[in-house]
Amino acid sequence: MNYLDLFAGAGGLSEGFIREGFTPIAHIEMSEAACYTLKTRAAFHYLQTRNALDSYKSYIT
Q: Which residues have CB under 8 Å from 45's CB, separation 6+?
């Protein structure tokens, strides 16, 4: 199933939905700092599905 995350914050609720197999369509958030966190988590999940977490690990260290 797909979902929209309104007032997403740093994405805690989305993280739970993703772990349960839901697919995010969009995250809506005004806070710039929270948006950077959302982008980082989205990159993690994208790279995880492509078995390319090495580039993610080098980014966060």
A: 18
What DSSP letter does each residue of 1-61 carry, written as one string? Answer: -EEEEET-TTSHHHHHHHHTT-EEEEEE---HHHHHHHHHHHHHHHHHHTT-HHHHHHHH-
The Cα–Cα gap between 33 and 47 comes to 21
Per-residue pLDDT tens for 40-49? 999 999 999 9
pLDDT higher than threshold 90 for residue 17:
yes
Domain-wise residue ranges, the chain: 2-60
At residue 60, does pLDDT exceed 90? no
Residue partners of 41: CB distance under 8 A and separation at least 6? 11, 14, 15
